[in-house]
Amino acid sequence: MVKPKVLATHRLFDPARRILEENCDAEYWEKPERPPREEVLRRLKDKEALICLLTEKVNDELLQAAPKLKITANVAVGFDNIDVAACTKRGVIATNTPGVLDETTADFAWTLLMAVARRLGEGDALARSGNWKGWDLDQLVGTDVWGKTLGIVGFGRIGKAMARRASGFRMKVIYTDAVRAAAEAEQELRAEYRDMHALLAESDFISIHTPLLPETRGLFDAAKFERMKRTAFLVNTSRGPVVEEAALVTALESEKIAGAALDVFEKEPAIHPGLNRRNVVLAPHIASASLETRTKMACMAAENVIAAFEGRRPANILNPEVLKG
Ligand code: DGY
User: Boundaries of each D-isomer specific 2-hydroxyacid dehydrogenase NAD-binding domain copy (predicted)?
Assistant: First the structure.
């Protein structure tokens, strides 16, 4: 029997490869650098499934180059790289990887929050520099985290995982979201709802956990920074374009806010040069990058592909209307 052909734009992890190879004829882009777009389009000609990263734009151009495509499986929960409507129009299933990365991403948002508050980046650089002269009373003094107010923007699974961790720091947790959480969730997480204006004014740390949508693009602009406390820090592990980077740089330069810790950027992999400053911690989009979680994400994408080939509903389908046709 001829096995369905799959293209993965990355070599993936062994457990995911095993899932695929049992049932499919899988081709991987094995090189460490990203595949050139033309190469992806060329290889897709005879493929029925694509497993891709969030760096691949799944749009009309790609779909046109892949006339046999049945499913595109994103190895990420965020799917702003996928034109879902275009997929639906062509009867192509689109899937993502929700749920498996929530705790790992929240861990990392906390890593960033702690690092910027306690000036870990600067401390690490000094300790390695050979210039450290020893303990000093006012050396690299930062800001306390414990007992402060954490403002969470976007109270989905990751936002809630962020809130859960705050109780150990005896923090007050406030959140904002388009949809207010159920009373039980608010109680369990000891989180209080605020509208955006109140959250900006009250928070010592603001952590962003919204998806990138037309309504959230540029959500953090000059007006928002104006409303934040001068002593407050911004943490972003969601998507870069949720924050207007130029406005953030201006806010940092004019000391409208105290600092920022960022895992995501407006035009990745480019980073606004104005963010290269002492009160900013930078990371290269690695919030979900633990071996356990990235392996689970790759396996989930592979399982979504297998389900589609077996005529089952993929667990993480984004456009279920395709199945009704
Ligand atoms: C996602 O899954 O959307 C992240 O940005 C990568 O883990």
Answer: 111-287
